[in-house]
Every structure is written in structure tokens, then in C-alpha cells.
# Entry
Amino acid sequence: MNAPLPPGAVAVTALPVAAIAASPTNPRKHFDATYLAELAESIKSHGVIQPITVRPNPDTHSVKLYEIVVGECRFRAAQLAGLEHIPAFWRELDDKQVLEIQVIENLQRRDVHELEEAAGYRMLMDRHGYSVDDIADKIGKSKGYVYARLKLTALCEAGKDAFFDGKLDASTALLIARIRGDKLQQKAVKDITTGGYNGEPKSVRDTKYYIENAFTISLKQATFKLDDAGLLPAAGSCTDCPLRSGNDPDIFADLDDVDVCTDVKCFEEKQLARRDQLIANAEKHKIPVLRGDDITHDIMRHQYGLYGLNNERYIALDAKCDDDEQGRTYREILGDKAPVSALIEFGTSANNKQIAEVAEPTAIAKALKKAGIETKQEEEDPEELAAREQEDKEREQRQQELSVEEARRATLLEKSKAVLNAGGQLFYEDVLRLLVIGFIEQWFEYFEPETTLMAEFGYQEPEEGDDPDYEALAEQALAAIKAWPLSTLTAFTAALIGNEDLHPGHDWQAEQKAAFLDPLAELLKVDTPTQAAQAQEVGATEPKGKTKTAKKTKAKAGTAATASPNEPAAPAKTELLHAQAWPFPTGARK
# Structure
């Protein structure tokens, strides 16, 4: 039984394979080699059962007389099978008709890749003026379906390759395609395809969580007005931005919140621009700007967010007013009449600094009273007051301990530099090498090494948007240290001691770094403030002779002589210290 003729087609004709050209507008660009080989074997046995469809080649300069409209897979398989002729329907079609057949009809097949489907829809729109509604009507799908497919065309090349290779599915590819910029997309592809357990791809759930946290941000965190188009003129307002989730619900159908920004870099630039505005305005009106050491504990108990602000000192204008039945912020209630006592710049690191306008409670109370809102005066719970006072005492004590630690480290640095400047060595080479290795291992395990340290090992910073490969850097660092001469080891040790990252940023960090500094203090015989105080206590309670004996015994047990800032270190008198004799825990280090 003969196959029915397509509309406008002539009868089936056997055309020379050599006279047929593939169509440049065919959206299908990837052909499965295994499938083609199997189809070629079938053609050898049974021939081409379903004829291909061709039209006269519009390229009159080509030696190929015909162009394939439908059936490129069969054509390629026929070539593999060695056929000289192939059955074909011959039709007179213009470019628009050809593309409609290739996209609307042919792309509805199950084996068509989503990226090829997307490319076909894009060609219909770009070349022949189709709208999303037109395509949706033609293929019987929703507009959201078409928009989602079209968004896949924004996927970076690395993402497309991973998608074709089966490392990404359509939903994950769409999440990546929504990320702004090729570099960030490339980072996402790498992290998603290799960031799972044992280097496997992340799960769908983990991928969604990763992208939402790394590449989107809630506009509720904005310190600027969302409708302010003049803050960053090149970006315009957030309310009209297509990268705001609520402005493109078809693309961001998986996001429940309409106020999600999907261009984190733009958001950060607006935050900085607003910060500069606030600071300039504060300086103009002589309003103090509190930052760094200005923010004492009685102002902010911690800097993880505005909820750390001590409301007995300052109240944030963007905080909700507890006395307002509508749950508005102080700024929303008071508008331009909101008092500003100071600006506070806070954050746990240089990368997440925020700035807030704050006012003293008395100023807020007066402004609210004028606005017709009476504030409630609540008596503080005595137990809570006592607990807070105790907490303040403990924190003050800890600050004193950290001050002592700072002084000790400053003394260590001075002593170490004095030894080096005088041409001496800090202590024996094997101890020094293992000490530095131990510190580096700890650093890479708990902290991100700063650029200056990375440069010591010839490590190049990755391009913007990529994270350093700390594992590779650690291996590179340890290999270098094991080959360093003594002079390099001693110089690098002094650099580590003086590095700002060795100063305690918080309690846990100070305790961890004592593992590196304590043995150095003992080996250099640094008389720290704590040790000096202990020595005074011993001298006050014991006979002088006994005290001198104790000091002599302690000095004799040392591994390196004490060096003063103006004198070189005397040669050590004891045998080489090995790992088992270290004055600090070795753990599993070798």
C-alpha cells in the first residue's frame, strides 16, 4: 500500500542521494550515532519505508538540486547504508512553509531534544514574525510552556553541552538559563554537575536550593525603594524589571514570591548606591556614621542582622513598630518626619556589609506621639536584666582575654623579626617545617586563605564568578613547603605571625590559632603578659633562691635561646626536636 501524498506533493520519486542537501533551517542538529547505525541496518534489509520530503533547493548556486524538508535521519541512514537513491515526496514550498513543517510538525516527535525545539520556536519568531500566542496555538500548548522552551536558548554553551550529554534535565537547564551572565551560568553548571556526593551531579532538590540561594535574593532585603528608577539609571526600577519574578510569571512559575530578584549583582550594586546616598546625606546633615570599632556591644549585641541592635540605644527606622496595630515600620508611619540619630554600618564580613538609619528611642517616641501613636512603657523582667548583666560581664572578661592574646602575638612578632633580622633562626628545621605544614592544613580546613597567602604558592585567582579550588591550592602549598629551604621557612613563619588573619576575630578563631602560636611562644621564650603575671605570683609566694632555680631549670629545657630585639639568638644547646617531643598536640598530622 502506497503512503498518502502530503498536500501539494507529487508522487513518490526515487531521487539521487548525491543530489540532496540537508536543510540549514532544520532545528535538529544532534543525531544519535547508535540510532543511525541501527536504522542503516534496517534500510539495508527493508529499504526506506517512509519517503522523505524535499523541495527544489533555493540555493541556485549549489550542485545539490533538492533540499530536505522532513526526513534527515532517514537520509543520513541511507547514506550509511550505501544507497544511491532514496524515495522522496517532492513539494513546492517557500521558506515559511518549510520552517512551519520542520518546527510545528516535526518537533512534536518524542525524540526531539528540548534545545532543538526551543531553537525552532525562536526561528519562527525571528524570521517569520510569529508571536508566543501563535506558536502556543499551533502546537496546542500553553504560553508558559513556550516561554520556558524559549528561555532555554539563553543557556550558555557549557550548559547546552551538559544538557545534550544528559547531565542536566529540562527543569534544571531552565533554572540555569534564568541566571544572568555566561560566567555565572558556567559556575552553576560546574557546581551542579559535579557538586553532589562523590562528584556526582546534585539532586533536583539540592539544585533548586543551590540556585535559589546563590543566584537569587528577596527584594524584601532591599534598603532602597523598589520603584526608584534613578538610583541606578542603567538598571531602572525593580518594579518594572523583567528579572523580578513577579514580572515574568511564566518563566518563574516555580517561585511563589513575586518579589525575588534574579540578578544578584544588580541588587548588590543598588545596595551600594543606596549606601553611598545615605552616607552622603548623613555627612551633609552632620549625622554620625557608626562603623567598625564605633559599634560597641551596648549598641549592637551582634552584627548578623538588625535584630542584634540594642533598642535601648537605637531603633532602626525599617524595623516594625510594636505599637502600631497595622504592623508598619517606623519609616512607613513617620515618612519624611522620621528622625535620624545615626547611620550604622554592620555585617559579619566585608562582603555582607549593610547600612541602616537609626534613631534614639526618645526621638522615636516623640515623633510617634506627634503622629498620634502612643508608645507602651514596659517594665523589664528582673531575671532577664540580671541575665543580660551577667552576659555583659562575661563578654567584657573575654574581651580582656583577647586583648592579652593580641599583646602576646605582637610580642611574638617582634621577637621573631628580631631573630630573623639578626641572622638567627627561629628553631630547628624539622620542627619549623612541620609547624608551618600543620598551620597551613588547619587554615585550608577552616578558613579561606587570603590572596597574599595564595600568591606565595604561585596560585592564580580564578576569573570573576568562580570559586578558588582550595583543595588544589592546599596540595600545591604543602608540596612547596616540604621543599622549602630553612631561610624560606623562617621568613614565612614570621609572615604568618604578622598576618592580620592570625589576630583573633572571634573566640573560636583565637582558640584554634593558639595551636600554632603556643609552641612558638615557648620556643622563643616570649614572656607574655599572662606569663609575666604568673611569674610575679610565684616570686611573691616562694623563696628567691627557689624562684631562680625554677627559672634556670626552665631555661635549660628550652630548644632555642631567647632573643632580644637587638641581639641575635644564641645557638640552641639541645638535640633536634622531633614530632613526638613537640610542645603542642600533633593529632593525626605527619
